[in-house]
Amino acid sequence: MNIHQLFLGALIIGWSLCTYAQPGRPNILWIVSEDNSPFLGCYGDTFATTPRLDKLASEGVRYKRVFSTAPVCAPSRSTLITGVFPISMGTEHMRSQYPIPDMIRLFPEYLREAGYYTTNNSKTDYNLSPLEGRMDAAWNESSNKATYKNRKPGQPFFAVFNTAISHESSIHKRLDTLMHDPEKAPIPPYHPHTPEMKRDWAQYYDRITQMDTWVGGILDELEREGLAENTIVFYYSDHGGVLGRSKRFLYESGLRVPLIIRVPKKYAHLAPGSPGTWQERIVSFVDFAPTLLNLAGVQIPEYMQGHPFLGKQSDEQPEYAFSFRGRMDERFDLSRSVRDAKYRYTCNFMPHKIYGQYIEYLWRAPSMPSWEKAYREGTLDAAQAAFWEPKPFEELYDTDADPDNVRNLAADPNYQQVLERMRGALTNWMIASKDVGFIPEPMMADISDTMPLYDFARSNRYPLDRVLETATMAASKDTRSLASLTERLQDSNPVVRYWAATGCRILEGAAAPARSRLLHVLADPEVSVRIAAAEALYYLDDRDRAIDVLTQAVSDDNRMARVQALNVLQTLGSDALPALETAHRLIAANPKGNEYDIRAAQGFVKTMEEFL
Predict the structure, then answer these.
(1) Does residue 322 contact residue 377 with C-beta atoms inside 8 Å?
(2) Does the keyword Metal-binding apply (predicted)?
(3) Does residue 189 sit in the same domain as residue 243?
(4) Is residue 10 one of the residues assigned to a domain?
């Protein structure tokens, strides 16, 4: 090698180091566990055994008020990877895979363009489409072997490591022996003390301990590689959980998550506080993407809806964190929630649906059938029985005095100012976010065939103010709204008609004056509107006609219409038996199917077998 080649080689290496080793460009490591609330010693849980995370907390900062936008994985991960609320994109329903606009990118793509080596090991579950090209742009590596070790010399990295050790499935099968004693497990007041419940809680704490050990392994590897002093470490969970009434539900138990961030001395100017301290700031998952870009010195796109909470351009603390609940697996529901520093307010737009709708995957935990059995036997107190009964329209909880959210203050006159403030904040968020979740999902599926729901919400075809006004009237159970609901059964917009029909269903017999209008709606061009009208008519004693319309919908070409109809039929007892043959045909045509219409059909058949 001559002197010119040596000089050229040195020049290339120098250029590479200048490109990748820019000052102020920390490595960033995300360690993510699944389905767990702050069941950690460092968060004050005395039953937990979590020495490695406790040590990490002593070296970093802990956040008290961090909330997932959804109490379930795919929609919450949709938020994390884009920095946009799923209610804006149409990605709120569990594993729905509706398209989003090209302008919304997976945020690691911006880091990669800025010179970062990006790796994901290995869960995606981003709940959006199309994904393949976006993945190629976002990640240098995404697999169960992905590692920051393959980067170029001096190149900063953003690496994600995810574990399913604490996932809901971890309690489906019994461990032979337990570290934590079931008789000493802390059972929340909304759960009965059945043997199965105590055992599930104890086993889950064992899984948390196993997860803690795994976290320690990731941190040890970082030390061995000599990278700890150059790497900002995040640890958090993808939502709360995991036993019934936590994951999937808009309570502290489903939404509040741990967040520990360790910032090395080299980047102390980016830290929010000294090691071992607590942070009171309200943080939402929608804040994570802009925060990562801010730490890396990357401009935050205007479409992102969160607030960066670390870095040189951090925003002031927001007053609220917002969350949502849409379809969970094969069961429809719709609720919205807002949390400030003290209170949680939730509005349930489908209060006629019980919390405890049967979800096949949720019922795999032994504690769930035991809880349901105890309810049927009448052995539960009011807090434990509430899960199996219709929801209130509004819920308000003082999370300091009532962290388990069992004392609803919405009707307490002493809290009316708080209620109105929180209600107003939630309404403003839904409007500002252009919430597409009020579109019934069969319509969503059809719209998505031609355009992203994000774009549809910004067209003149979605009158959100009128839709939201109608949905609020419907859910309020106020008979004074019946005249308006009856009029809106003939509205030009099908989403308005859907919510008007749903309102008649919620009012049950009190909706009798709307009966003739509802009969006309049975011929509506939108199947989701027909289903809602049929359900309303069932409760006005027009049962045969209602069952006929619902049975026809089980054979509809639209999968989500099939799910919607089966959801209704399963609640109608033996009157729904005429639909049994149609459900059997659906299952027979898809013997190995795992789609949500098949799960809904299987659940319906299981319920109908009780009447044969």
Answers:
(1) no
(2) yes
(3) yes
(4) no
Cβ atoms 105, 138 nearer than 8 A: yes
Contact predicate 442/564, CB 8 Å: yes
pTM confidence score: 0.95
Pair 141, 109 in one domain: yes
Quote the CA–CA distance of 275 and 262 in Å, as a whole number. Answer: 8
Positions marked catalytic:
73
pLDDT of residue 315: 80
Q: Are 430 and 87 in contact (CB under 8 A)?
A: yes
Sign, CA dihedral 101-106-111-117, equals negative
Q: What 8-state DSSP symbol labels residue 562?
A: H
The predicted pLDDT at position 23 comes to 52
Domain that holds residue 390: 337-421
Q: What's the pLDDT score for residue 118?
A: 98
pLDDT at 331: 98
Query: Alpha-carbon distance 188 to 428, whole Å?
Result: 33
One domain, residues 259 and 300: yes
Please tell me the distance from the alpha carbon of residue 275 to that of residue 58, in angstroms, as a whole number: 6
Give me the amino acid identity at 416: Q
Residues in CB range of 426: below 8 A, 6 or more apart:
322, 336, 337, 338, 345, 347
- What's the confidence (pLDDT) of residue 24? 61
CA dihedral 404, 409, 415, 420 (to 10 degrees): 100
Domains contained in the chain, number: 3
Residues 350, 324 within the same domain: no
Write the CATH number for 267.
3.40.720.10
Asked if residues 273 and 91 have their Cβ atoms less than 8 Å apart, the reply is: no
For the chain, residues with pLDDT lower than 50 are 1-22
Please, which residues bridge with residue 29 across strands?
Answer: 159, 233
Q: 34, 80 in Cβ contact below 8 A?
A: no
Query: What 3-state DSSP class applies to 157?
Result: strand
Predicted pLDDT at 312? 82
**Beta-strand pair 259-262/117-121:** unpaired
Token pair of 137 as six digits: 């742009």
- C-beta of residue 339 within 8 angstroms of C-beta of residue 378: no
